[in-house]
Amino acid sequence: MNGRLSPAGLSLPRLGLGGSAFGNLYRATSDEDCAAAVDAAWDAGVRYFDTAPHYGLGLSERRVGALLADRPRSEWILSTKVGRLLEPTPEHADRLDDDFAVAATHRRVWDFSRDGILRSLEASLKRLALDRIDVVYLHDPDDHWEQASTEAVDALVELRDQGVVRAIGAGMNQSAMLAEFVRRCDIDVVMLAGRYTLLDRSAEADLLPLAQERGVAVVAAGVYNSGLLSRAHVDAASRFDYRTTPDHLVRRAMRLAEICRTHGVTLPDAAVQFPLRHPAVASVVIGARDRPQAEQGIERASAPIPEALWDEIDAWREAADVT
After folding, report:
1. Can you tell me the distance from the alpha carbon of 275 to that of 225, in angstroms, rounded to the nearest whole number?
2. Dihedral class, residue 58 (left if φ above 0, else alpha if ψ from -120 to 50, else beta)
3. Beta-strand pair 106-110/84-88
4. Which residue ranges does the record assign to the NADP-dependent oxidoreductase domain (predicted)?
5. Do the beta carbons of residue 217 and residue 188 sit within 8 Å?
6. 105-153 confidence digits (pLDDT tens)
7. Has residue 4 got a pLDDT over 70?
8. Mean per-residue pLDDT over the chain, rounded
């Protein structure tokens, strides 16, 4: 499962396990289910794990750190993110967080200053019970380009030079700004969510060719586009980018599912494997809440897919003028 790019001498595995559900995304996940998901991934050879302070106000980091603690440190790669400080709000402990099923004991504060990056990473190291982290991404700096691309990147470069982190970059749901990070900053890797999928290939126009040219690894996330591509038979009620799916995208997804079926492949199998066909993409990260989801994702990543499927999808896109 070795990735095809090695930022900062780091070999990125082909498949990674995302930890948003470990932070109780939308609903609670038990400690036992989290442990079973990590066990299933580990047993299948997965050695890349991704988390963030944002996921459950630190809960995901605490869980991931604990679940990896007894495994040889040299055998796994961990990424987390900076840019949102968690500030205590004990007066809101009786409320629930907006997106994660956890008590609102902290609030997220955007901070891409040097001090904010250092404080964020220090807090993450404590939650993870680690003294170094393999990959650190600036998390969703969409509205903070000026500070993120200068002060924050400079702070991460310092940390990389000190050996506290091994590779640095940014993680976003858009490709245009990630392309600017690649073009202007000394980074190793980017995490791209939802912009290079079976339904949305917008990253082909900017990020992917530039990343390939500069030798910056791309980690693809959000390969199901929030759910629309996650089932063999498309559910029109599924979300696309966390929102209600427009009718034209539902129709496209249904057509893709039909093409997949004619080749004996499921839509989610193709969704997981599609990004890895591009030479700039080193790894795909998929989320899992429990053992069945982890095993299912791993099976999708290794399902046999004939080249003719990709050829037919490309021909359909061209004929339909799908952008």
Report:
1. 12
2. left
3. antiparallel
4. 14-316
5. yes
6. 999 999 999 999 999 999 999 999 999 999 999 999 999 999 999 999 9
7. no
8. 96
What would the pLDDT profile of 235-269 be if each residue is shown by its tens digit? 999 999 989 999 999 999 999 999 999 999 999 99
As given in the structure block, the two tokens for residue 50 are: 């991704």
Give the bridge partners for 240, in sequence order: 243
- Domains in the chain and their CATH numbers? 13-245+268-305 (3.20.20.100)
Decide if 55 is catalytic: yes
Strand partners, 49: 17, 78
Catalytic residue among 26, 48, 55, 224: 55
What is the reported pLDDT for 46? Answer: 98
> DSSP for 69-111?
TTS-GGG-EEEEEESEEEEE-GGGTTSB-SSBSSB--EEEEE-
Structure tokens at 170: 């940014």
Q: What percentage of the chain has pLDDT greater than the value 90? A: 94
Q: If you search the block for the tokens 């932070």, which residue do you land on? A: 23
Nearest-angstrom CA–CA distance, 127 and 296: 29
Report which secondary-structure segment, H or E, holds 178.
helix 176-184
Q: What is the DSSP letter of 277?
A: G
The percentage of the chain sitting over the pLDDT mark of 70, rounded to a whole number, equals: 97
- Cα separation, 314 vs 75, in Å, equals 38
Reading the block at residue 102, the tokens are 């956890």
